Amino acid sequence: MTSGGVATGRLAVRHRLAERGIDRQLWLLLPALAFIGVLFLYPFLYGLGLSFQPAEGGFLASYQAFFTDPYQVGTVWNTLRLALPAALINVLAAVPIAHRMRGRFRGKRVLTTLLVVPITLGTVLTAQGLLNYLGPTGWFNRILLSTGLVDDPVRLTNNYWGVLFSLVITGFPFAFLLILAYLSGIDPTLERAAATLGADWRQRFRRITLPLLAPGLATTFCLTFVLAFSVFPSAILVGNPAGETRVISIAAYQAAYERFDFSLASAIAMVMAAVELGVIALVLLWRSTLYKGSTGGKG
Amino acid sequence: MSGLLETPTRPVPPSERHAQGAPRHRLVASPAAWLVWGAVVFFFVNLAGIVGSVLVSSFGTRWFGTWLPEGFTTDWYGSAWEDFNLLQVVLVTLQVSLLVVLLSVLIGAPAAYVLARRAFPGKRLLMLLFLLPVLMPPITYGIPLATVLYKYGLAGSVSGVVIANLVPSVPFVILTMTPFIEQINPTIESAARMCGASTRALFSRILAPLLVPGILAAAIIVLVRTVGMFELTFLTAGPTSQTLVVKLFTAMSAAGIRAQQGVDAMAVIYTTTMLVLLVVALRYVNPTQLVARVREAPED
Amino acid sequence: MSAAVSAFNELRLDGVGRRFGGVDALTDLDLTIRAGEFIALLGPSGCGKSTALNCIAGLLPLTAGSIWQDEKRIDTVAPEKRGFGMVFQNYALFPHMSVRRNIAFGLQMQRLSRPEVSRRTDEAIRLVQLEEHVGKLPGQLSGGQQQRVAIARAVVLEPALVLMDEPLSNLDAKLRLEMRTEIRRLHQSLGLTTVYVTHDQEEALSLADRLVVLRSGRVQQIGTPEELHARPENWHVADFMGYRNLLTLTATEVSGGRVAVEGAGMQLVGTACGDGVREGQVIVALRPDDVEIVDATPSGNAIRARVELVEYQGKERAVEARTGAGQVIHVRTPRRVAPGDDVTLTIDPSRVLVYPSTDDVGELAVPTLDRVAS
After folding, report:
1. Angle at the Cα of A235 (from A232 to A240), degrees rounded to 5?
2. Cα B78 from chain centroid?
3. Are residues B97 and B182 located together in one domain of the fold?
4. Which of A265, B146, B166, C374 meets the CB 3.0–4.6 Å disulfide criterion with B235?
């Protein structure tokens, strides 16, 4: 009788689990879950714990050390000063270009392929190229000098501008391709319908396309911002890593591998994560107020 | 937030073809169009300058204060290959990226399958968790991860580099493969089951062949990103487990010790590797897929 | 080729139910399927018929009840181990396999010997007349051919039970009729036991030995085609079985089986269906082809109306007439009438079906007049 009770009990549980969509197939998630737990969550939490265990001082000492040192806190500002304009430039420049290039035309495949090149080059090669090309004796300055636009070489490397250029070069194609995909998802007949109702191209863009595109823009901004915010090698190579482009990654790296203060390094990494996620959360908050339904594209 | 990397997908309506006629005609007249195309051309000219200057420099003998080097030589490649011990570096790079591709597909594909097919409690939370490593700057989790890896004696070795690179790769496999799996009609799986196929047979005989394009896309994206991944490899690699991009960085930051052109030569080797990968990649994936989870309408 | 004749004597569904996150898709389904039977599950979309089929197949786990194959409980058995065959609405052919490999797939899963697989595959291909197409991929076939492959793939395993989920709904009208005959022929010649899901009452009536009508996840009626056609159990079933005229009238007198109803400018004598018919509001169901247009005033039920719309439908015409009180009556008639004609309609009292206007749940429910015809 007890075994019968157990059997019905087990069956009832099975029925209840089935209703919620839980069955053995979910075991397939296990490898990825274990992986993310062991290699991402655990280290992250370990780092979080470490940041509260400074070599000396109270449990907040590492954060105190970071926030009371202007040289360290300045890195947050340095990073935002690079990442926000870079992400903004990328998104704003990509919109009109993508708008003009949606749909099909000859050479589009070639063009989009060319645009992927800087993404695959990666930051290190881009930095090397920028040093050569934009340097005082590089082709860019030679062109400016020989056309008489400037008298002295413009200093574009080893400072803020070098890093910003590097971020734009790697980030723009990324933003462009994403926005192009979003734009192609908007049914072109909507704009034509607006045209038949008397809207000129400016009104059509502002009243029809832009509102439908806005959530995509927010997402694109977030993703390019993430890319730009993690700027590290180019800030060292084409920037001025001791001064205006001493970004937060550099601070974290130096704390860990030059001063071997892993508690401080972890604290800086946590601050970095918090700032980045904070900006993303703000953008997503704004995004959540937008219309996000169908954009008329089928599928 | 789980929808963050999703972009709209749809087949191009046939009407769109007609729509294209209009802008192309207008292009001749509109100054806005010229401005836009001008910006694109400007971008590409500068891009060509950036890549070109590295290329020319790597073949140049002595180049200072002139448009072009005094002469051309291929010597830098030989010396870079020797000086930087590039054979070993290339082998490590290959080893790392292939291992990362293999492992991330093995780990990520089953999870992508469940996430594409099933609804279950906590699914949104799980999606967010899988998205986080892609959203976070690599440095933020790279430093704690490297610390943990040092603790367990894994850092500084090839396996440490592989482990670190898996962290963003597995989520990328999941994000890339989910739409491919969604495209396969679930009744095909039901049909296989009704024909008596076990879960194993279902995966090996039905899903795997149908998912070849998705697996290829995911593998290639992970490959390109792993070869290009600087931060995580930099944080976890030891002297014998550096990949090409890290070696390039260390060579560059130590510039002055060796001739600039040698570094340029290595950069060209790296670029060529990446471009070959890219050309191969673009045979199988859409350019947009290289940057995010996107299904675009077929190009032809 | 012959199906496994004695795979089971009967398959019993015992209080089968399926909930999805708090919503009942199927409730308390009791059904016994005898070997060799052709059962149709019939109902509008969303009624739970496909859910029921997937539960039998094992593709959906149950959230209540049990399924028994003779004395063996099978609802905990994995779908691939139940030994049933299934044909899907969208055919669900493996797109990367040729016709031949599609059909052979199930046999290979059973690890049969190569010659055995080859022999039985050939037999199945011959059965569905696809000999010329064996090497093609599913994408190269027409809809009808794809459906033949799907059927061959299901029956080649000689399954104890064949489940068909709206297999004809993606075909055009002509092909649908052909394949309908084909399915019935296969069922008989192979001695199959078939459960067939459809929303098309005509298809269900012509194919099945017994029909199960479902609505909102609940069984409304189980019966032979004749029973359902002539005597629906409640007005929902009547609605679904083609009783296009559902009139909300008032019963003035109930005596035994006969009921006098009036309202909307009509006075009719009808037959009470079920025990719940009382004086007061009732629903009267009339099938358009039971209503006749007559010249002389009939002795029995008579309705005067004016023709408003006429649709030519081959042998007959579908006529929409309106009574003086504004009630629309649908009639099918071989007569030639034109809009504007005044006509007298009559209907035999045994074909005036009177239902209580309350649901089985007890709540008051009145049919809406202008529904989209199913």
Report:
1. 145
2. 28
3. yes
4. B146
Residue with tokens 């199930």: C106
Q: Which two tokens stand for residue B167?
A: 């962290």
Between the CA of residue C85 and those of B184, C155, C165, what are the distances in Å? 21, 6, 11
Q: Do A14 and C76 touch (CB under 8 A)?
A: yes
Q: How many domains does chain B have?
A: 2
Contact B230, B246 (CB under 8 A): yes
Q: Which CATH superfamily is domain A62-287 in?
A: MetI-like (1.10.3720.10)
- Residue A98 pLDDT > 50, yes or no? yes
Nearest to C92 by CA among B299, B58, A36, B184: B184
Q: Which class would CATH give C245-356?
A: mainly beta
- Residues B211, B168 within the same domain: yes
- The minimal CB distance from B190 to the residues C92, C96, C105 is found for C92
Nearest CA in chain A to B55: A129
Nearest-CA residue of chain B relative to C104? B195
- Rounded CA-CA distance A127/A129 in Å is 5
B198·C83 Cβ contact <8 A: no
Please choose, from the candidates C257, C309, C248, the residue with its C-alpha nearest in 3D space to the C-alpha of residue C280.
C248
pLDDT of residue C196: 94
Please report residues of A whose CB lies closer than 8 A to that of B129: 36, 41
Helices assigned H by DSSP within C78-172? 99-109, 114-127, 143-155
Residues 47-86 of B with CB under 8 A from A: 47, 49-54, 57, 64-65, 67
Q: What is the mean predicted confidence (pLDDT) over C209-225?
A: 92
Lowest mean pLDDT among B68-82, C84-98, C205-219: B68-82
Give the model confidence (pLDDT) of A182-221 as tens digits: 888 788 788 888 888 888 878 888 888 888 888 889 988 9
Task: Provide the residue ranges of all domains of chain A, joining segments of one domain with +.
Answer: 62-287
Closest in C93, C95, C110 to B196, CB measured? C110
C337 in Cβ contact with C300 (< 8 Å): no
Query: In B, which residues are within 8 Å of A190 by CB distance?
Result: none
Q: What CATH number has the domain bearing residue B155?
A: 1.10.3720.10
Task: Answer whether C316's CB lies under 8 Å from C333's CB.
Answer: yes
Best CATH choice for the domain C10-230 from the list 3.40.50.300, 3.40.50.2300, 3.30.70.20, 3.80.30.30: 3.40.50.300
Q: Which two tokens stand for residue C109?
A: 């899963």
Question: To the nearest whole angstrom, how far is the Cα of A28 from the nearest Cα of chain C?
Answer: 17
Q: Is the pLDDT of residue C353 over 70?
A: yes
Alpha helix (H) residue ranges in chain B: 15-29, 31-59, 75-83, 86-117, 123-135, 138-151, 158-183, 186-194, 199-201, 208-228, 231-236, 244-253, 260-284
Residue B296 lies in a domain: no
Q: Cite the beta strand spans of chain C per DSSP E.
A: 10-20, 23-34, 38-42, 64-69, 72-73, 84-87, 161-165, 194-198, 210-215, 218-223, 245-255, 258-263, 266-272, 280-286, 292-294, 303-313, 316-323, 328-333, 342-346, 353-356
Domain extent for B182: 81-290
Q: Are residues C63 and A23, on separate chains, in Cβ contact within 8 Å?
A: no
Task: Give the residue from C314, C315, C153 showing the smallest Cα distance to B190.
Answer: C153
Instruction: Give the sign of the dihedral formed by CA C109, CA C114, CA C120, CA C124.
Output: positive
The two three-digit tokens of residue C239, written as one number = 């609605």
B203 and B91 within one domain:
yes
Strands lying side by side in the sheet with C194-198: C84-87, C161-165, C194-198, C38-42, C210-215, C218-223
Question: Angle C69-C74-C80 (CA atoms, 0-180°, nearest 5)?
Answer: 110
Reported in sequence order, the residue ranges of chain A that DSSP labels E, i.e. its strands, are: none
Q: How many CB atoms lie within 10 A of CB A210?
A: 13
ipTM confidence: 0.80
Q: State the smallest CA–CA distance between residue B114 and chain A in angstroms.
A: 7
Query: In degrees to the nearest 10, what's the CA dihedral of A154, A157, A160, A162?
Result: 110
Q: Tokens 């290039």 — which residue?
A: A101
